[in-house]
Amino acid sequence: MDNFLREQSESKLQNDASKFEAEAETASRKLLLDASEDLLQDKNIVKRDARSAKYCPDLKDGEVCKMTQEDAARFCKEQGGHLPSTREFAMAMNPQAILEHDYVEKELNGVAPPGFYKVASQDENGKIDSFYFNNDLLTRKLTGELSKLSFWTSSIVLGKPDYAHVFYGPLGGGGGTPEDHERSVKHAVLFIGDKSK
């Protein structure tokens, strides 16, 4: 009887832990989706002003400030926000255009459907994020300056620390040449956070 109760108790604990993990994952995705809703707006493009002047000193106030990837991340952090990740850009364009890496590996035997490409990255803390994305499934049409510029992400290309992912407004997703992804190249910056700080 004691073994039966112990097994029941362990089973309930495992079910509770699985349920908690699923709820935490759902809550995390909702927060990410909510944050990404506000991301793709011209007002979030960093332009030269008193706060960004040291990163783009040769520009006039109001002009789009382009920076290296490291400077972009530093600027956003200094302002109390962060540089968006590749996943945040993808979520903002269309969460339905994302297939999780584990799903492709386990359910699709490692073969992504046509049009999907793999995005593998790690953040500044070394956390790995890997998913598949399809630019052709985009439901959001960019306008204004967003549709013309390329933007740094905070996501470092997995296994290539000198390269970072770039979001291309004209494409609504990834692209470009390998040289465009070198962290020393200058791209525009989208800021997530409270600019009033």
Structure notes:
- With 197 residues, this protein is α+β, with helices and mostly antiparallel strands.
- It folds into two domains: 1-37; 38-181, no CATH class.
- The chain has four helices and five strands, in the order H-H-H-E-H-E-E-E-E.
- It has a five-stranded antiparallel beta sheet.
- Strand 4 (150-157) and strand 5 form a beta hairpin.
- The protein is globular and about 70 Å long.
Features of the shown structure:
197 residues; alpha+beta; 2 domains; 5-stranded antiparallel β-sheet
Count, helices: 4
Count every beta strand, where a strand is a DSSP E run of 2 or more residues: 5
SS strand fraction = 5-15%
* Chain-averaged pLDDT: 84
Helix-strand pattern, N to C? Answer: HHHEHEEEE
User: What's the quaternary structure here?
Assistant: single chain
Biggest sheet statistics: 5 strands, antiparallel
Low-pLDDT ranges:
24-33
Would you spell out the secondary-structure blueprint of this structure?
Layout: H1 2-37, H2 69-78, H3 86-93, E1 98-100, H4 101-107, E2 117-122, E3 128-133, E4 150-157, E5 164-168
Antiparallel strand pairs: 1-3, 2-3, 2-4, 4-5
Helix pairs in contact: 1-3
Give a quick summary of the entry:
With 197 residues, the protein is an alpha+beta fold. It has helices at 2-37, 69-78, 86-93, 101-107; strands at residues 98-100, 117-122, 128-133, 150-157, 164-168.
